[in-house]
Every structure is written in C-alpha cells, then in structure tokens.
Amino acid sequence: MYEILLVVYLIVALALVGMVLIQQGKGADMGSSFGAGASGTVFGSSGAGNFMTKTTTILATIFFVLSIVLGNLTAGQIKETDKWEVIEKAPAVETVTPAQSDVPATEDKTSDVPN
Q1: Domains of the chain: which residue ranges?
Q2: Which whole-number Å values give the CA distances from 48 to 13, 31, 42, in the listed order?
Q3: Helix (H, G, I), strand (E, B) or coil at 98
Q4: CA angle 2-65-10, nearest 5°?
Q5: How far apart are CA 113 and CA 88, in angstroms?
Q6: What is the DSSP string of 58-78?
Q7: Model's pTM, two decimal places?
Q8: Burial profile 63-102: b = 16 or more Cβ within 10 angstroms, e = fewer
Q9: Which of 2, 17, 91, 93, by CA, is between 20 and 30 Å from 31?
C-alpha cells in the first residue's frame, strides 16, 4: 500500500506543478484588454481561471493529505541499521615496537681508519 500511495503522491505532485505553470498571472488580464493577443487562448481571457483554480486547490489538498498519510506510515517503521556502521576493526596482524630513542646510534669510525 505504501508503494501505491507513493506513486499517487508523485503523480499528484507533477500534476500540481503542471497546473501552477499553466495558469496565467493576475496581471495578464490587463494586457488582453488592450489587445495583446491573450484573449485568443484556448479558454479565453479569463474563462479557465475558475476551472484551473479549483483543480489546483483540489490537487494541493490531495497533495497535503497524502503527505500526512505517508509521513504517518513511515514514522512507525523501525530503521534498519546500515551494514557499514557495524563493521568491527580488523585486529592488527603485525605490531611495531617503538625504538628506544629517535636518534640513530653512531658507530665508532676510529677503528676502521688505517694509519
């Protein structure tokens, strides 16, 4: 059921975005009254305003209701732990012992020098 609601949610969201983009602004009527050519559209100068406004309102209501329903469905689910979060450290195979001092020991070069 969750997957079906998620698909419906996606379709409603895309339809809502499409309806908002199709609508014309409030100032578009002013241009059509002076002969700007907007009165020759499919729905006329303001014929589709009522239909599109109601459709947008219905789609927005469905969108918000589906958001609340999907949110409630996912809120009760227990999140599975990620497999990568519980990886233990591998034990060290080789241990390195630190040197007694950081200064290297020097050899006595006087015995190797010929006279």
Answers
A1: 2-22+43-74
A2: 21, 17, 9
A3: coil
A4: 55
A5: 57
A6: HHHHHHHHHHHHHHHHHHTSP
A7: 0.51
A8: eeebeeeeeeeeeeeeeeeeeeeeeeeeeeeeeeeeeeee
A9: 17
